[in-house]
Amino acid sequence: MLKVDHVTKYYGDFLAVDDLSFSVNPGEIFGLLGVNGAGKTTTFRMIMGLLDKTKGSITLDGKPIDYSVTDQIGFLTEERSLLTKMTVKEQCLFYGTLKGMKKEKILSRLDELLERFEVSEYKDKKIKELSKGNQQKIQFITAIINEPRLLILDEPFSGLDPFNVEMFKKEIIKMSKKGSIIIFSSHRMEHVELFCKKLVVLLHGKTILKGDLKKIKSDYRKKTVLIEGDMTKEELEKQKGVLRVIEKPEEFEVQIEDMSVVDSLFSFVSKKKHVTKFVVEEPSLNDIFIEKTGESYDK
Fold first, then answer.
1. 191-224 pLDDT per residue, tens
2. Do the beta carbons of residue 26 and residue 179 sit within 8 Å?
3. Of the N and C termini of the chain, which has fewer Cβ atoms inside 10 Å?
4. Do 82 and 128 contact (CB within 8 A), yes or no?
């Protein structure tokens, strides 16, 4: 288990992370979210042991993270961290050696991953000769070449087309099923919702949302109902508990206070002659994020 316990980080007088706590079990994919400057990168670096904490503790299986366990950690940074004058093979040998792997193991693992990510032909190519998407594949390969127990993924899908996003997804899920602890951060909320059962949202270093994603959605009061039928926007806006009505080409998007409004709204709609749609939607994680932070995370 990875445990972050009441961790605080100051840069001089600036409070970057304020009393952050969470835990991630083996096999879990945990979301750490926040707009730029929220404290995500600082938290990642403290977990990696690259930054000292001001207060609190970070442990992996009950032990502080130090050089004795860094060989069991993988980190995919948001920024490119590849040495572009190296070949793919040289790059992976370099990273694998840093992780304490033997040359034979690195090369066999490299061949396996290059084939899986469909880039075997680039093994002896220099990094700078690859496209942005293929560079991202190589960066991901260097992060997982040591089959890490703890894997930190910061914007792993940057520069990837939908086909390659699916390829990455399969590998991430495969690693979680094998028991890796995975911390995931992305600006694409649909990816967060797909992977993460638990999450923390940071704003200016403070935790503003935390817990099980299903419960967070369940507890979120505002709901949306999609309605298609022979009524007007003005009629819907007059219904008790309706907060907002957006008229779209083929339907109305009706935001209501909470689930208690559904029955009365349905009663009104059912009296109309031609109703072809009445669907209560869950709030998206992006909707909740915007309400909590005041800005969109999907940038």
1. 888 889 999 999 999 999 999 998 888 777 678 9
2. yes
3. C
4. no
Average pLDDT over residues 79-103: 91
Q: Return d(Cα 289, Cα 35) in angstroms, integer.
A: 10
Look at residue 298 and tell me if it is in a domain.
no
CB 217 within 8 A of CB 283: yes
Q: How far apart are CA 292 and CA 201, in angstroms?
A: 9
Look up residue 112 and give its two tokens.
């396996």
Q: Is 247 inside a domain boundary?
A: yes
Query: Which residue, among 200, 187, 216, 199, has the nearest Cα to 284 in the 3D structure?
Result: 216
- Owning domain of residue 229: 221-282
Question: Is 225 contained in some domain?
Answer: yes
Q: Per-residue pLDDT tens for 89-100? A: 999 999 999 999
| Residue 187 within any structural domain of the chain | yes
Where do we find the tokens 């694409």? 188
**229 and 184 within one domain:** no
CB hemisphere CA count around 265 (13 angstroms): 31
pTM, entire model:
0.82
C-alpha of 55 from chain center: 26
User: Do 176 and 228 share a domain, yes or no?
Assistant: no
- Find the helix or strand (DSSP H, E) in which 75 lies: strand 73-76
CATH code of the domain containing 269: 3.30.70
How many whole angstroms separate alpha carbon 30 and alpha carbon 33?
Answer: 10
Cα–Cα distance between 147 and 168 in angstroms, integer?
A: 15
